[in-house]
Amino acid sequence: DAGVTQSPTHLIKTRGQQVTLRCSPKSGHDTVSWYQQALGQGPQFIFQYYEEEERQRGNFPDRFSGHQFPNYSSELNVNALLLGDSALYLCASSSASGIYTGELFFGEGSRLTVL
Amino acid sequence: KQEVTQIPAALSVPEGENLVLNCSFTDSAIYNLQWFRQDPGKGLTSLLLIQSSQREQTSGRLNASLDKSSGRSTLYIAASQPGDSATYLCAVISNTGGFKTIFGAGTRLFVKA
User: Mind listing the pLDDT tens digit of every residue in chain B (113 residues)?
Assistant: First the structure.
């Protein structure tokens, strides 16, 4: 049973560029959430996707956008990269019942460095 | 606005010691609370999930308790081992203002052999 998989594991970009990160949820899960984790801090909630729609969003600018596909996989896009976007980006999947989100399972993350 | 605080920020103990990690939250209207372990540069591994109607959960040497009324949870680790060295994070799902997961900053644990 494959867990949550994320790609790429590491990437380096320069300021102003755009990046796309990908996530495949754990088998049987239909909800994907994205988090940003700066060094030494806890993960910060970016947004959550369910039934191909953004269901909840944290305090992140519109430069951060996402998408969920019919197979429940998801992408996180960040435009006009800033140095402060350097972080570990984590994807979590869960199985939703109505609007309640159950136990979260995380991938290994994508380490983004912006130069 | 829900805020989650973890104390202490870092902890160093000798092998074999029992220890308690603390997590507090400001808004008691939560759906559940989940404890995670994170190794350096890695993703999060789920340890225990406590539903809002539950008081505690146990898995092996780990026991987590939840007191919603006081906004507190504790993670008890029995007979600590060097392999327990990691950062431990607690997260709550609040049901006010949408179902968002709010994390604490974590407790960095080092168990000395």
Answer: 889 999 999 999 999 999 999 999 999 889 899 999 999 989 999 999 998 889 999 999 999 999 999 999 999 999 999 999 999 999 998 877 667 889 999 999 999 99
- What is the C-alpha separation between B110 and B59, in angstroms, rounded? 20
Tokens 């909840």 correspond to what residue?
Answer: A56
Q: Give the Cβ contact number of residue A38 at 10 Å.
A: 13
List C-alpha distances in Å: A110 to A18, A36, B36, B69, B99. Answer: 15, 10, 18, 37, 24
Identify the closest residue of chain A to B50 by CA–CA distance: A103
CB contact under 8 A, B43 and A44: no
Q: Distance between CA atoms of B29 and B52, rounded to whole angstroms?
A: 9
Q: Is the Cβ pair A101, B101 closer than 8 Å?
A: yes
